[in-house]
Each structure stands twice: as C-alpha cells, then as structure tokens.
Amino acid sequence: MKRNALQLLFLLATPFLLFTNCNEAPTETNSDTASGPPNIIVLLADDLGYGDLSAYGSQSIHTPNIDALAAAGMKFTRFYAGSAVCSPSRASLLTGKFPLRFDIRQHFDDREMHLPAGTLTFPRVLQQNGYRTAHIGKWHLGGIRIQDFTARTAGEAANPGPLQHGFDHYLCNIEDPLVRPELIRERKLYREGGKTLVRNDRRIDEIPKHWTEIKVDEAINVIEESRKADQPFFVNLWFDVPHTPYEPAPERHLSVYEKMGVKGDQLWFRSMVSHLDEQIGRLIDHLETSGLLENTIIVFTSDNGPAYQGSPGPFKGGKTDLHEGGIRVPMIAVWPNRIPANTYSFQTAHMTDLFPTLSALAGIEVEASDLDGMDLSQHLLEQTPLERGVLLWQMDLYKHFQNQGPKPTPYATTVAMNENWKLLADSLQTTELFDLEADHRELYNQLGQQDSIEQLLHTEMRSFLAAPRKSWKK
Amino acid sequence: MKRNALQLLFLLATPFLLFTNCNEAPTETNSDTASGPPNIIVLLADDLGYGDLSAYGSQSIHTPNIDALAAAGMKFTRFYAGSAVCSPSRASLLTGKFPLRFDIRQHFDDREMHLPAGTLTFPRVLQQNGYRTAHIGKWHLGGIRIQDFTARTAGEAANPGPLQHGFDHYLCNIEDPLVRPELIRERKLYREGGKTLVRNDRRIDEIPKHWTEIKVDEAINVIEESRKADQPFFVNLWFDVPHTPYEPAPERHLSVYEKMGVKGDQLWFRSMVSHLDEQIGRLIDHLETSGLLENTIIVFTSDNGPAYQGSPGPFKGGKTDLHEGGIRVPMIAVWPNRIPANTYSFQTAHMTDLFPTLSALAGIEVEASDLDGMDLSQHLLEQTPLERGVLLWQMDLYKHFQNQGPKPTPYATTVAMNENWKLLADSLQTTELFDLEADHRELYNQLGQQDSIEQLLHTEMRSFLAAPRKSWKK
C-alpha cells in the first residue's frame, strides 16, 4: 500500500524530470476528474517538531511517505505556526488571523474556552462556495464537551463546535474534562480512543481500531462520499500524534527502533511518528486509486514545535517557547502539475496564510484586508518571492521544560518579526533581537545594536497588543 | 546539464518504485559496461556542516544535485568524520585508521608534517588491484610544497605526496607556506587557484577557470582516460569548498540568495555550496552520458563540521570541537541497482570504514585486523544493522570560535563512543557523558550517573592514548 502511494508520488514528482525520457509511461488516466475546483486536504500533526521528519533532517525517524509528499510539491523551510501552543495555533489556521485577535493566548482546557461564535473561518468560506467540508480528529477549539453537543442536539444553547464553524461533518474524540484527561493519564488515547467518539454532535458506538487509523478511515469515507456526489471536498484532518500520551504504535513500527536500542517514551514517540507517516501514505494511496490525487491540494504541517520527545531540528526551544524551535514547523504543499514538484522554498510564511492562499488556489475571492494572512498562491504556483510583512505572536507565559533542553531564557510572551529580524519581548519589555538569516539558531542577541529595526518592531508590537480583540468570553 | 543528471538519478532512484508502472520506459543501455570491478569516486567537501545540504535539513541552501544523489542511494544520519579538523580526518579516510595511530593530532601547517611514508592506504590497495587511481583537489597531507615536488622531480629525497601514497595521478593547488596562505588571505583561492597548480609533481601553466570547475574537468578527463583504457578507476575528488576564503561563486549562484537579503560572507558561503552542488551535478551528468554511472560507487561526505558560516544542523559545536557538530557529517553512498535507492540509515559509521567497505564492494580482500575501520558493505547492500564497536577520537586542544555560537565548554581532546554512549575527556580527565540516542543535542551531561559505561569507555580511552604510534617525525 505504501509502495503504491510512493509510486504515484514519484510519478507526480518527476514529470518534467522523467517523462522526457519515458514517453511510453502510463500517464494519469483520471484527467477528466482534474477539472473543477480542487479538493483540499489539510493534514495537521500535533507537537511534531521541525526535526522529526527525515525530509527535514531527522536523525532518528524515517518518514518515507511524508518525504515522498515533500518531493511531490514544495517544502518550506521557514513556515511559522500561529503560536507555540495548541489552541491559538489552530485558531490562526482556521481564521487567517493572529490568535490574539480573539484573545486566545493559551491552550484551551476543554472547559469554557472556545473559538468565538460567528468568526469567519476558512471552512465556512469553502462551504459557501460549494465544498463539502469535514473536520476529522483533534479539535481543541471548544464546544465538544458532552454538555455542548448534548445541548445542541436538544436544540439548546451551547459553545460552538465544528458544525458551528463551517464544517458539514465532523468526527472527534470527545473533548471533555471527564474524558480526555483520563485517556492521556492512562496512556490510552490512541489505542482506546475509538471508545469515546462523537460524530456530528452524536456520540457513536466504539470503533475498535487505533485512533490514528480511525481518522484516516473517516477521511476516506468523506472523500468517497464527495466523489460520488461529484462535490469538491475540504478535509481538515488533524492528527493527535505525536502529542502525549506516548503509547506504542502497532508493532510493525517498533522493531526498527528497538534494534537501535531505543526505549521507553522515545521508542513510543518514534513509533507514533512512523505510524502517522504510514497512515498518511494510506490516504495518499486512496486518493491515487480514486483518481482524485491530481486535482487535490494537500498541505501538511504541525501546530507548534516539539514537546518532550520530539526534536526542534537546529533551532532553540520547543513547544511553549517563542524561539524558532517553538514556532517554526514543517510545511509541505502539494498540488500535482500545478505546484512544481521537487521544490524547496525559503519564503517566510505563516499559518494564517493558508486561509487566503488556499482560497485563491480554489478560485475563491476573499476579502483579505481583514485577515493577518496573505495570499501566497503566486509563490506556490510560480515560485515568486513575496514580501511577507510583519508577523506577530503573543501568548501567556509558559515555563514548561522540554526534553530537548531546559526552556531557553529569557522568556518572551510577544514577538514581532520583519524579514530577517525577530524581536522578542516579555509583554513590551524587549528581551532579544536576532538576525535569523545569519543566526537561525538565535545565539547572538543584538538588542541595543540595531536601533531603527528595534524601534520599528517595538512599535508593531505595541499596536498589536493594543488593538481591539473579539473574545469568546461572555 | 543539471536536468540531465537529475533525470538519471531519478530513474536510478526509482526502479522498484517506478518501473513496475513504466515497463516501456527506456532502461539503461549501458549494462554491458556494468560488469567488472566497480569504479569508485569519493567526493569530499571541506568544512561542510551536517546542516548545509537541503537533503540534511538546511534552512538556507538548496542543493538539488546532492539531494538527488542522496535519493539515488543511502543517506547516513550517523556518520562520523575521523576528526573535527582537516588533516587528521583525511588521514583516517585514506588509511582506515584513527589519526592518532600516526600521531596526527592537529591540522597540518603545510610545513614539515605529512602522512608517514609507507603507510598502507586505500588507493594503494586499489592500485595493486588494477585500478587507475587519481587524487584531485585539496590534499593537506603533506609533500606538495614546491621544495617537495621539485626534489622528487630531481630524484632527491622529499616528504611523500599523493604519488607516494598510492595515486597514479594527481592535480592539486600547490600546498606551500609561500602559496596557500596568500591565496586564502587575499580571497582568491577559488577564482585564481588555477594559477598555482601542480600535476604529478610538475607545476603546470595557468588554467584560467574557477578552481572548483578545474577539479571536475580533471576528474572527467581521468574518467575518460580510464574508460578508453577499459580500466576501473578510483577518483578521490577533494573539494576545497566551502572552506574559507569566502569568495563569490559564479553569478548564477548569487542572485537567489541576494533576493533573500543575504550579504557578506554568508552570501559567498551559500554561493560556494550551490556551486559545489552544481559541479557535482556536472560530474554525475558526465558519468551518465559516458554510460559509467551504473557501475560506479559514489561516496559523498565532509572532512569535519562547519566553520564560521556553515551550520551543524541540530548539533552542538562545529569544526575544532568534539561535540557532534564537529564530527557528525553528511554521508551519502550510491551504487545504482546495488545499494538500494531512497534509503536512509541510522547505522553508526565512521570515515575509517570507507577503506574496508569500498574494498569489499570492489571484491578486494583486505587484512582488516590492522584497521580501525570495519566493513559496512553488508549494511550498504542489504541494510543489515551492524554493531559498530567503539569509536575513538583524539586531537590537540583548539579554542577557536565558530559562527554558530561560542565553542561549547567544557573542552575535550579525547572521545570514546560505544553504541549510544559518548564519553568526552580532556586527555583522560572526563568532562561529559551523553546518551546520543535520547539526546543527540548533547544537553544532558550524565557523568557520574552511569558508572559501568563510564568505566568501560574510560578504559578504551586509556588504551587508545597509550597505544604505540607510527609518526611522520624523523
């Protein structure tokens, strides 16, 4: 199955390289399905670090399917998550705005917090333009506690969930203080996650499979339904892996690492990434056999830097930290025959850009002035370098430690970045200034040595923190 | 030209992935040349860091030709240079022994020091087995001062050079205290290196080309002569790039980085790596059009970690330092249809292993008991995991600083490594102990917490430092 997916990805990756020598080779037979709006799949890993994929230089994990995906499209080296923790990052992906715009400054605790009702989201725009939209997997944006979906089913008021934010369909593990913490504490989120599922506001019977595989099964079902209905789809497939709890993935992913003497959480972690890679291969394989791959845009990324067992690659810090290790994540964009294969991008890009960029690729005009994201479609299709403009981050202070070293000090809660320059601050008290082009490891603090740049970025920060915010709070 | 090389590499990389779907595709027409002993090319970069190739996760440089080479064979994640500086590492590559065995504990200053006469080298073994052996490029193992090759031409005694160490042919820039330091100081080693060349102990007229391109021209000439003579060849092609002096590479390699706002030495550095990549593409292209690629083993690696402008990837330290950044280097091994393509290896391997491994692949039996290297051919051909055994490093103390941060402390001059455990010491005074499998960034010093491992490695160190040495000293 993996081999089939890889075969096709290599075929897709090499037309201009290969088919000049290989005119007799079978070409895609599904060109008739390649007309019309493109399908869109966003694959989001959870706490996967920049250094956790072999395509991004991992020292310890081999991810052939994701690597093949990278070879079939454009691989970004400077793509930033919306935050260094979960919920704010996810909010930025769906809304195209920095999470502070919604006063989202920390990860949600599954209690009251939620993405504000009535927020314009990317799935809503696609839905309004004829797409079948589905969210599958981790949500972590509120509204799928038992009391929420029960209330909605009864026609009562509740915090908004995926159906209220533009999705026609969803399948999640129930995100409730009575359910999720236990699954995590007892390390059974993946192996027993199929026991506590909610689909479209209805709790469903157990699916006795691994949660990572249930998600891909559900994605395939949605894709098949869309294909039969001849409707373009948006599948928002948010994996929980490789976030804790560290659990052994199915056996086939363990032996390769056991042979290397890897043990404990690090062994489970690697097996989880390999399992993720395999399941993504299965999904790509299905797209191929269904003839849908050619007209499907696939984006793969992660919500923030690595926690505990993961690797930030060459960067400083990890999850909960605003140094590069916490926010610079893998990002791969594939659209066979449209986004050039085997390409590698140094373009600065940000999670908020996915909304305007994917909309533009789908031929949908969005009012971008209200968004923090910018349309990168020209860069994706033609490799045009674009000026990204100022990027901003804010989050509450976290002092957690990561496996990849103690959290770097000084701590920061606010970042402004313009081109190569990155200013970090605790609220508005500046702490560090780095030239990322010369010093991507953030080793040489240039605070006090670049007055005009510092001034410019500090002004941006101040405006950002002072700007009006829409909040979930009642 | 680049495209042709890439085309072929993709063809070679994908037979089992692709040709099942592409039976009509043209196969290599040169299978008649694929019999007989394999040709061997060792490509060695100078001061190229683990993080300086896109195939190894570079954030700043795109190396499509070397990446394609990696895709056509096996890419190692845990390959170690023989030292963290130049000459000892090169000595280990040619001799299959740790450089301390020859009392080589620092880089040579182009004056008296040299690889001891009569040392058994890898090219000597190949030469004795019918290979045409050529050394092209940086040598830095002594014996090619003006006084040396002049004396040899006159039949007088001199320090041994490439011809005395098993090479039938060589082309070098004169390595002399009167020549090299000026080229480096005035930053014209690459652009004017063609003015001060020595070939087979004769100074030759200027070749008015870039030194990196002169080397590849020479390699192509050697390859063509061998092909005409129907003799297998060993080309030992040691590039000077991206070692200082930082000089602009030809213009085509500058604009991509200038657009990103990169300036000064960092701009020259990146252009030099891109130029190296292009020239390697040109060499591969020539092998293809000559029909020789299929039966040629190609190894690509670097002599030590990055200096100044380069990147150690995720590792601590760089050149002159025995943390991973100084000694863990890229290594790619390609032999089309023999070494499986698109493979990725976690095997611990060392520069001394190239001698017994490449000999074994060439069908030559060597008396391995006298070598520190081990035969990895089974791993290359069949992906068999091998126990590498203890690895040892010793060098004089360097306190240089690198661009990628101040040199990490404590300093070490001796290292013993067994499986995941790495013990560092200053002479025999232990300084750090790391579990590299869990902590490849060397952040958690476990000295004092793993008594039996520490004891074992310290004993190895002691024997290593006390062992008899063959020296170049008169």
Automatic annotation (TrEMBL), chains A, B:
The keyword Calcium applies. InterPro entries: Alkaline_phosphatase_core_sf, Sulfatase, Sulfatase_CS, Sulfatase_N. Residues 1-20 form the signal peptide. Keywords: Calcium, Hydrolase, Metal-binding, Signal. The keyword Calcium applies. GO terms for molecular function: arylsulfatase activity; metal ion binding. It comes from the Bacteria. It holds the Pfam family Sulfatase. Residues 38-364 form the Sulfatase N-terminal domain. Belongs to the sulfatase family. This is Arylsulfatase. The lineage of its organism: Bacteria, Pseudomonadati, Bacteroidota, Saprospiria, Saprospirales.
